[in-house]
Amino acid sequence: MKNISTSVLLSIAMLALIAAEALAADRVQPGQWETTISAGGQDRVMKSCITAAEASAANSDDQTFQASVVKIAQDAGCTIKDVKVSGNQVTSDATCAGMHATSTTTYHGDWYEQVSSNGSKVHAKRVGPCP
Fold first, then answer.
1. pTM of the predicted model, to two decimals?
2. Is the N end or the C end of the chain the one with fewer CB atoms within 10 Å?
3. Which of 114, 129, 127 minimizes the C-alpha distance to 39?
């Protein structure tokens, strides 16, 4: 398995953070998130803050949500070919740094898990308000 750069994994993780559950009331909440990315036999733990504006985009209708995912991917140097929302799962095809991956993210309230075709796994949880 090829090693994937930290920036690519961070981009994928951030995309996952703004993905949403089926019900608007249960979508991403603003606050501090702790994300563990497992790839190439190594784990990396990061913290990030999801702002109220980012949470609002994730909690809007599917079309607005999909547009925000594409914008964030472009800002990170990635391209999203397809984003599908089905219940508590979001599937996306992304190309970052020349590498393609299909990712499926399953949401469970204040945490989620993501499995990608490139072998990486992501587990994230909301740990409280932003500092």
1. 0.74
2. C
3. 114
CA dihedral sign of residues 116, 79, 13, 30: negative
Element (H, E) at 66: helix 62-75
Tokens of 74: 């472009």
As given in the structure block, the two tokens for residue 2 are: 């090829």
| Residue 46 bridge partners (DSSP) | 35
Among 74, 89, 28, smallest CA distance to 53 is for 28
Q: pLDDT digits over 12-24, tens only?
A: 555 555 543 334 4
Tokens matching residue 22: 């089926």
Instruction: Say if residues 2 and 60 touch (Cβ distance below 8 Å).
Output: no
